[in-house]
Amino acid sequence: MRLKIVATAAALLVAGTAVAPAQDPTPPPAAQDTTRGTLGSMLGTVFDSVHNAPLSGAAVFVLGTSRIGTTNERGLFTIDSIPVGMRRVHVVHDLLDSLGITMVTDSFPLVAGERKVLEMALPSSETLVTLSCAPATRRLGPSAIIGRLLDADTDQPVGGARVSFAWSELSLAAGLKRVPKVLGATANAEGVFRICGVPSEVEGTLQAEKSGITTAEIKVTFIGQPLVIQGMRIGNANTVARAQVDTTEMTAPVRGVGDQRFSAVNYQKGQAVLRGKVVNANGTPLANVRVEVEGTVSRALTNADGGFTLTELPSGTQSVVARQMGFAPVSQAVDLTTREATNTTITMSRAVQVLDPVVVTAESDMGLENIGFTSRSRSMSGTFMDAKEIMRRGPTILTDVFRTVPSLKVVPVSPYDYAVESSRGNMLGGRCVKYWLDGNPYEAVFPGDVDRMIPPYDIAAIEVYNGSTVPIQFTNANSSNCAVIVIWSKYRASQPVKRR
Prior knowledge:
Blueprint (H helix, E strand, L loop, with lengths): L2 E3 L1 H4 L2 E7 L19 E10 L4 E2 L4 E4 L5 E3 L5 E8 L1 E3 L1 E4 L1 H6 L1 E4 L3 E3 L4 E7 L3 H8 L2 H6 L2 E9 L10 E10 L5 E10 L5 E7 L2 E10 L2 E2 L3 E6 L3 E3 L2 E3 L5 E3 L25 E3 L1 E9 L9 E4 L5 E3 L5 E7 L2 E8 L6 E7 L5 E7 L18 H4 L2 H7 L3 E4 H6 L15 E5 L5 E5 L10 E5 L2 E2 L17 E7 L17 E7 H4 L7
């Protein structure tokens, strides 16, 4: 169903009264009054109440004529040489299509030599949610997500697709565990979907699916606002296929507390191409950054110029992930299509912050003494491995190191990725594992990415703790009752001691 916004129906669009040309105090330079006996003109504005800004780039049609205007950056438009008579105006814009709105005025008279002044506005976010969502649904949650789903390769609306928003909530009934919550809607024939009943303060992911083809999970955040507008694109059976992988190795991804992935990874491939560049906050290219599109087998390292190319990608809204030692991982949405290569720039602006090192008395102490590893290995209960012990285990990837640690177990989460679980569990029944890298919590983008953290040969030491044995400096609000793995790079261990 498409919402039709007109002046008389919702008082959201106001047609102004006619004024003489001399009375208009600020006509734009391009405006021209028509004084011929059978023609009139229009001067108007279109305002975007959702974003509280003028609506630029909107096409303004005078129905029943061939006259068209376009709004500028101030939302202004002028249309001249309009045949007189009863007229209506139709406003077209991508934002209106995404909201499923048809914006048209009621009929009004246009007389010869007249300049009609129109002031038009989109509905506010609150009004849109009120019109889109039933009162009973809004009592479950006051906010909503509205968007439009298009075919990534044809730009045609995709009807019948299932669009879902998922997040997690702390549940007392479940014993203080986080439980997943999902709301969904089906896109109509015009591709428009409306998900109602969303909490006003929540962070989750939005994903579309049709006939087994999926988009990535796109992060959506509500911070008190009533509405989020999120358009998406999806591939079709002609451009997307399931990736040929060894299904005997595949299991559902492991999801711990705080993980922002709510569905199993759907491995897909296609003919889309993604080209891009990875830079730091100053715009300097970053080399040897690992870049991949989630849910595909296409991966690359950036070259000396920060450039990369990924091929055989599925069309649609996907998520590209970049990882580099010393930076927090970055994940951003990209719209891929087979019609042309997509170009993107990824900025890794947030460096991993290193906590102040443990203070020791001898400035000449280096290596493991600098990071406190030696003293903790003597006084704390846990598993401790220096570089020699790590390499003795013959690891190819990081998770190989943990295969023989008694308190841990390594499980596959895809044909190419592994996750580490606590083999002992905790008092809440979970098997979560939290990581610290060089004194700072390591932020994962999705389960199974631990092997992208650091190669085994670059590690100076590893500490493994369970439950109450975790040292206070390696605990935070999200790691209580979880096993903790602390990893120290050789670079960090080689740095001199700093005094406070």
